[in-house]
């Protein structure tokens, strides 16, 4: 048998959310936190169960945000659904921006590595040709300038 506390939301998190809504001087009893904990857990189970049923009918194994929004609407919680759709849109937009930034950073790192590898190869070639070791590298307009100290 599953321990009841394992299926419930953490009471500390529930209490913290309740405190955010209430005035700073408000006191929340343990029983109030427990009641809200049970209600919130039941609500989440109700909505995710509906979304899971939809996924099962569509032969999918993963419930996504769109499924949750659909479940909220189909259960009559349109106000929640509309708010979550807006949040989900903003979240996905932020994730796309973050992914694009990561791609740009990775691309710059690859360019830096390519430049380093090119410079390293050039130094090895110069050293094997018994010429002085370069003391400075500069790239001007995509042209590599190698400076030797005299």
Order of helices and strands: HHHHHEE
Morphology: extended
**C-alpha end-to-end distance:** 82 Å
Strand sequence of the main sheet, in spatial order?
1-2
Extended strand count: 2
* Architecture (CATH level 2) name of the largest domain: Orthogonal Bundle
Question: Radius of gyration in whole Å, from Cα?
Answer: 30 Å
> The CATH topology of the largest domain is what?
Histone, subunit A
Unreliable spans are 130-134, 136-150
The percent of residues in helical segments reads 55-70%
Mean pLDDT: 80
Q: What's the structural domain tally?
A: 2
Content-based structural category:
mainly alpha
Largest beta sheet, briefly? 2 strands, antiparallel
Could you explain the architecture of this structure?
Pfam families: CBFD_NFYB_HMF. Belongs to the NFYB/HAP3 subunit family. It comes from Hevea brasiliensis (Para rubber tree). With 150 residues, the chain is mainly alpha-helical. It has two domains: 1-76, Histone, subunit A, CATH 1.10.20.10; 78-150. The chain contains five helices and two strands, in the order αααααββ. The protein has helices spanning 4-7, 11-21, 30-57, 65-74, 78-128; strands at 134-140, 143-148. The protein has a two-stranded antiparallel sheet. β1 and β2 form a beta hairpin. α2 packs across α3, α3 (30-57) packs across α4 and α4 runs antiparallel to α5. The longest helix has 51 residues, at 78-128. The chain is extended and about 65 Å long. It starts with a helix and ends with a strand. The model is unreliable at 130-134 and 136-150 (pLDDT under 50).
């Amino acid at each position: 048998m599953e321990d009841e506390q394992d299926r419930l939301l953490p009471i500390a998190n529930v209490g913290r959310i309740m405190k955010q809504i209430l005035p700073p001087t408000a006191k929340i009893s343990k029983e109030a936190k427990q009641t809200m904990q049970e209600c919130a857990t039941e609500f989440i189970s109700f909505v995710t169960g509906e979304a899971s049923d939809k996924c099962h009918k569509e032969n999918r194994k993963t419930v996504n945000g769109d499924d949750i929004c659909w479940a909220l609407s189909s259960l009559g919680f349109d106000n929640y659904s509309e708010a979550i759709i807006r949040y989900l849109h903003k979240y996905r937009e932020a994730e796309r921006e973050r992914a694009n930034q990561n791609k740009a950073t990775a691309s710059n790192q690859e360019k830096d590595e390519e430049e380093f590898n090119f410079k390293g190869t050039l130094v090895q070639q110069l050293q094997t040709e018994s010429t002085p070791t370069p003391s400075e590298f500069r790239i001007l307009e995509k042209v590599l300038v190698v400076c030797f100290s005299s």
